[in-house]
Design goal:
about 775 residues; alpha+beta; 5 domains; 34 helices; about 45% helix
Length: about 775
């Protein structure tokens, strides 16, 4: 007899619950104690059954009628139950009674004593098997109904293909079945399945559920019945039929949690514990059930701890108990982790096959050490083991690993981002994937209405939200500014309807906050809220509150992988851009860094602290990682800073080609003249002269107002060139700060000799006379220089 059947032993009752509409009464005989249910044959019953079977074998047409009165104890329940089922013809009555006689003769027992397997042997696993044994199939449904009621037979899933609708109507009646099915159909349409194939298939699924719980009342269906149906009706019922039913029951408040669709072949959790010592796994399980971390955090740490268990099993079996760990054993593990490769101490799966043998990534090493710090730190703090070492120091992440880990938001290029913005703003119904028709080999994917998809896309493109924040937005999260607002402390006015306010839910760093966003987000969300079917509240896993999620459809919030796996590829197809660029795949979080960088590099940029508030960061260091200065803005600022001009001085130089050709330059005669603006310098070592910024007008100086200066400017065959001269810190300061510092520099150079020999003080005192009429400068002074 089957023992895993939740419907086994359940009886239909006539109880009614207050406040539950459309709960039909059941009128068929339920009290089976009114019948003589003696499990053994009474006197003469076995002999009469044997005679009846022999008469049937000889094709005697009166074999049943002649023995009917002698078997009245066995036939009375059949007649009364068939009367309840509304069977008017005699074919079904005669067929069920005849088959029961043959069945009792074969199994040599009364049907009151049959178990699940004996009823299954009588009913057959297929119609063909039933026909081959009894010669007819017209009465099989009635026989199944009789076994379901009188024999408490519940393994309907073992009978092969049967009509659940027909069987359910035979057992519970047309009115009860029609009421339950219509109630489910209306609720299914209300939560968003109006154009779904599930509308057509819901009657069959509802009937299977009613048969599983042995009641036509929807409130009697529980999660246990749904899970039993999913496990046992693998061929004749699919998740596209069972998941909508669970969502109906959740929407009606009958069950708390709807079934999750089965996506792919998930590896069971017990596979992760392969090769882990039992003692270590026991400690890990104890820690996992006690820790206060969120599921997304402790789940990853648990897998890291199980990897440590496989390392223990392979190299250090003596460390299966956490109390056996010391500073020395901790350093051994850290050293082994630093030399580990991908696949070491892991359960190899398809995700690792392409990376086997490669060194572990720095983040993987850091996560493994973080898991060990959390595990041993909690075990010591909770008093499970003694404090033999400090986990924070023993499992500290090496600096060489920390240096390789850095936040890299990976900003999307401006041209690609502009195309994605256009695609999101112009998203239409035709851009959504089409739902394929149901066939035996085609799986149906779940798609959302265009209003929802457009609202999610625009919120992602303009909101700068984390993926978890976006999917957890609540109904009414948008508030409009309907009047002009004066900014406090200023005379500036923010015009009405310039922005709208978005309430961001609790995130990983801070509580709920409000930030301004662009109007397209508010418009798209308003359109979706108007078209959104009413959904039952769902529990927010971060706050444990029952809330109305904004992006909820068919009683289910959009998945956390929807943006990366569905929305972004769809926008890339519409925008005709690749799903990957030089920095990797386009992901949900890259939009956040792109928006932050554009706000930081705009014409009127947000300051670092303003951007921190807008992004919802707790630490300004996190904002610094997101606020990337664009190369164009950096180049403009660098150009405006004038670093090259600040450190270099451009001087015009006149070259006398005649002096070069005639050989005068070789005789140390002037051939190169540095234009000082007020005169020329003929010193060949002008770049090294300490008085180049404040000329002392020594013998190398030729003023432009003199005849010699005019003769130089009027000379033919002169070539003009520019020469850049690097400035010292003092010269650069004098140029930038003004005349006062320039005078101070001149005073400091007063006693510094010029290239001609005398100091500026001597020159200004008239101790040395500078000739302005001689064409040739002092050759001795030049040679001395």
């Amino acid at each position: 007899m089957a023992t895993d059947d939740p419907g086994r032993g359940l009886q239909v009752t006539a109880q009614r619950l207050d406040g539950i509409p459309e709960r039909p009464e059941i009128s068929w005989p339920r009290n089976l104690s009114n019948y003589d249910r003696t499990p053994q044959f009474l006197r003469q019953e076995r002999r009469i059954i044997k005679v009846a079977v022999e008469m049937r074998a000889r094709r005697n047409p009166h074999w049943l009628k002649q023995n009917h009165d002698a078997l009245a104890r066995l036939f009375r329940p059949v007649d009364e139950l068939l009367d309840y089922e509304g069977t008017r013809g005699t074919v079904a009555r005669v067929g069920v009674k005849a088959n029961l006689i043959c069945g009792m003769h074969e199994q040599r027992s009364v049907y009151w004593s049959w178990n699940e397997d004996e009823w299954l042997r009588f009913l057959g696993t297929t119609y063909r098997e039933f026909e081959g044994r009894y010669g007819q199939t017209e009465c099989r449904n009635y026989a199944i109904a009789f076994g379901y009621i009188a024999g408490n037979f519940a393994s309907l899933h073992r009978l092969g293909p049967i009509s659940s609708n027909t069987l359910c109507r035979l057992i519970f009646g047309n009115h009860a079945v029609d009421s339950a099915v219509e109630r489910c159909r209306q609720e299914l349409q209300r939560i968003g399945y109006a154009d779904s194939l599930s509308i057509k298939r819901i009657p069959s699924t509802v009937c299977k559920a009613m048969l599983a719980c042995r009641s036509p009342i929807l409130e009697d269906i529980t999660n246990a019945h749904l899970l039993w149906m999913r496990e046992n009706y693998r061929v004749r019922i699919t998740q596209e039929d069972l998941v909508p039913l669970s969502r109906i029951l959740k929407s009606l408040g009958i069950i708390v949690q709807a079934l999750e669709p089965r996506i792919g072949c998930r590896k069971p959790d017990q596979d992760a514990s392969i090769g882990v010592p039992p003692e270590w796994k026991k400690w890990v399980d104890r820690w996992r059930t006690t820790t206060t971390l969120e599921p997304g955090s402790y789940r990853g740490l648990t897998y890291c701890l199980l990897k440590v268990g496989r390392w223990i099993n392979q190299q250090r079996p003596d460390l299966a108990q956490p109390s056996a760990w010391t500073y020395g054993t901790a350093s051994d593990y850290v050293a082994a982790l630093m030399r580990a490769n991908v696949g070491d101490w892991s359960v190899v799966n398809r995700a690792l096959k392409n990376r086997l043998g490669k060194p572990l990534a720095p983040r993987s090493i850091a996560q493994s050490l973080s898991a060990m710090r959390s595990f041993f730190g909690d075990c010591q703090e909770w008093g499970w083991i003694k404090r033999q070492f400090d986990p924070r120091r023993a499992f500290r992440t090496p600096r060489s690993i920390i240096a390789k880990i850095r936040i890299n938001p990976r900003v999307i290029q401006d041209d690609i981002w502009a195309k994605l913005l256009w695609a999101g703003l112009n998203l239409t119904e035709g851009d959504l994937p089409k739902m394929p028709q149901r066939t035996s080999s085609t799986k149906i994917s779940f798609f959302y209405p265009c209003e929802l998809v457009r609202a999610v896309a625009i919120s992602w493109l303009f909101g700068g939200l984390r993926n978890d924040e976006l999917v957890r937005l609540r109904v009414g999260c948008i508030r409009w500014q309907r009047e002009d607002v004066t900014i406090p402390g200023t005379i500036d006015v923010l015009p009405k309807d310039a922005v709208c306010w978005l309430d961001v839910p609790v995130n990983k760093t801070q509580p709920q906050f409000t930030k301004p966003v662009d109007r397209p987000i508010g418009d798209a969300i308003a359109i979706w809220e108007a078209a959104r079917p009413k959904q039952p509240p769902a529990r927010d896993r971060k706050t444990a509150e029952l809330v109305d999620f904004l992006f909820s459809y068919r009683t289910k919030r959009i998945g956390r992988f929807y943006i990366n796996q569905r929305l972004i590829p769809m926008l890339c197809r519409k925008a005709n851009v690749p799903e990957k660029d030089a920095r990797g795949s386009l992901t949900s979080h890259r939009a956040r860094s792109t928006i932050a960088s554009q706000l930081f590099n705009s014409k009127e940029p947000l300051t670092l602290f303003e951007l921190q508030e807008w992004l919802g960061h707790r630490d300004p260091a996190s904002t610094q990682a997101y606020a990337k200065v664009s190369p164009t803005k950096l180049a403009k600022k660098y150009s405006e800073a004038g670093y090259f001009e600040r450190n270099m001085r451009t001087v015009e130089v006149l070259l006398d080609r005649d002096a070069i050709v005639s050989g005068a330059a070789a005789r140390d005669e002037p051939w190169r003249y540095y234009d000082l603006g007020h005169g020329f310098c003929t010193n060949a070592y002008f770049v090294q002269c300490p008085h180049r910024m404040a000329c002392a007008k020594c013998s190398f100086y030729v003023p432009k107002v003199s005849a010699r200066g005019q003769l130089i400017e009027g000379r033919e065959n002169l070539e003009l060139m520019l020469q850049r001269i690097p400035l010292t810190d003092e010269e650069r300061t004098a140029v930038e700060e003004g005349s006062v510092l320039f005078e101070q520099m001149c005073q400091r150079l007063a006693d510094v000799p010029t290239p001609a020999g005398p100091t500026p003080k001597q020159i200004s005192a008239g101790l040395v006379e500078i000739s302005t009429t001689s064409v040739n400068p002092n050759k001795n002074s030049r040679k001395k220089r």
